[in-house]
Design goal:
mainly alpha; Helix Hairpins; about 100 residues
């Protein structure tokens, strides 16, 4: 059985992070932006698991649980904000949301 080297995990993680970054910077839909942020957090989790596995240290795997907890809290709070904004402005387009004007 062949073992996949750490470089492949890091390349995959970098690709996922870049896709998430491009999604955050180029999209104007709030749901897509939150999905891109989740993709970036999952890329970080993949990197942490990769380093923890190849260095035989459990600290990275423990740290993943904290990142997952932050991601879950971000999803819950973020979706609540998105729902509140949609009820107020009837749009999810970030460009059209200007809360300083009535």
């Amino acid at each position: 059985m062949e073992i996949v080297s750490q470089e492949y995990y890091l390349i995959l993680s970098a690709i996922l992070f870049i896709i998430g970054t491009v999604g955050v910077l180029t999209r104007s839909n709030a749901i897509v932006i939150f999905m891109s942020i989740e993709l970036m957090l999952n890329a970080v989790n993949l990197t942490l698991i990769s380093f923890a596995t190849f260095s035989q240290d459990a600290f990275g795997q423990v740290l993943v649980f904290f990142v997952m907890a932050v991601a879950a809290a971000e999803a819950a709070v973020g979706l609540a904000i998105v729902i509140a904004l949609y009820r107020l402005k009837k749009t999810l387009n970030i460009d059209n949301l200007n809360l300083l004007k009535s």
